[in-house]
Structures are given as C-alpha cells and as structure tokens.
Amino acid sequence: MVVGQMSRPQFFVVWRITIYNRVDYMPFNNIKLVSLNVNGLNNPIKRSKVVTKLKKEKAQVIFLQETHLPQQEHEKLKRFGYKNTYYNSYRQSQKRGVAILIANSVQFECHKEVSDKEGRYLLIKGKLENKLVTLVNIYAPPGSKKSDYKDLFNLVTQESEGLVICAGDYNVV
C-alpha cells in the first residue's frame, strides 16, 4: 500500500489490495475499505458469494474491478445492502466495468460522478460521514497506454476535493 499526502487535496492510494483493516489515519472513524478484482459477476451465484464475503469482512466502502455487468445488473447490487452503488459499464460488451459500493451503515452524499465510456474508471465526489472525499476506482487492462494513465491522473487532479482515495487494478508491476 502506498500512502502519500499533498497539501490539497490529500491522497490515499490503494494499490491492488484485497482487504484492509479499518484505517485510523484517515479522517473517518472505523471505515473499512476493500478493493477487489472480481473477474466477472455475471453469474448470480458468484455475485452472491462475493457479496457474502464482503459482508462477512464488514466492508463498508468497496471498489470492484472487472465487474463485466451491464447497467441493469449493477443496479441489483443495491439489493445486497448497498443503496449507494455507483458503477461504470463498458456499453459495447460484457468486459471491464468498475463499481463503488457504500454500505447502508455509512453516511454518503454524492455531489458529482465522472466516468469514461470504456468502463475503466469511476470518480465520485461527495461527503462521506460529513467529510469531503473523492473516491476513484480504476481498472487498467493489460497493455494500457501511458497516455491513458496521464489523462486519468490529470482528471483526478482537476476534479478531486478533500481526501482522495484511489483504488483499483492497474495491471502494472
């Protein structure tokens, strides 16, 4: 895990993680973050198992990559106790896709949502537990161009407010 702080905004970067315990150095009390490449959630049984595991781990802010779900299937994730579900799907096929799920037990107010057309990233600005935050979820398929990263991080720099939490699967070593 890499953590870096800047004068404004503050950055909290999560590099290809599975599950982290509650983070005490964030300005939030007891928020558990999880980032997971699920490699497809089209199968309802797999979807249920993944959500059951996340609930068992008491995950509260969840970053999913490679969901491979169309819009209507992403909506179904709300039924599992994540009314604050934000997602970006690749509209031309069941590839890629990212989602940010926020448990019902966590107070969140969305101010802005930014995404691309390829289902590679999702940026959400809002208030998490009444504190300004920018949540970014990135899926960079193998072979992604450096210019894609540059454009994305320019966007994050331009759009971010408050604490910035970047999570995802960057497919880099």
From TrEMBL:
Domain Endonuclease/exonuclease/phosphatase: 34-172
UniProt-listed GO biological process terms: base-excision repair
One CC-aspect GO term: nucleus
Entry's cofactor comment: Probably binds two magnesium or manganese ions per subunit.
Keywords per UniProt: DNA damage, DNA repair, Hydrolase, Magnesium, Manganese, Metal-binding
Database matches in Gene3D superfamilies: Endonuclease/exonuclease/phosphatase (3.60.10.10)
Domain of life of the native organism: Eukaryota
UniProt EC number: 3.1.11.2
GO molecular function: DNA-(apurinic or apyrimidinic site) endonuclease activity; double-stranded DNA 3'-5' DNA exonuclease activity; metal ion binding; phosphoric diester hydrolase activity
InterPro entries, per database record: AP_endonuc_1 (IPR004808), Endo/exonu/phosph_ase_sf (IPR036691), Endo/exonuclease/phosphatase (IPR005135)
Pfam families per UniProt: Exo_endo_phos
Swiss-Prot/TrEMBL catalytic activity: Exonucleolytic cleavage in the 3'- to 5'-direction to yield nucleoside 5'-phosphates
Binding positions (Mg(2+)): 37, 66
Swiss-Prot/TrEMBL cofactor(s): Mg(2+); Mn(2+)
Family, as annotated: Belongs to the DNA repair enzymes AP/ExoA family.
Designated name of the protein: exodeoxyribonuclease III
Biological source species: Astatotilapia calliptera (Eastern happy)
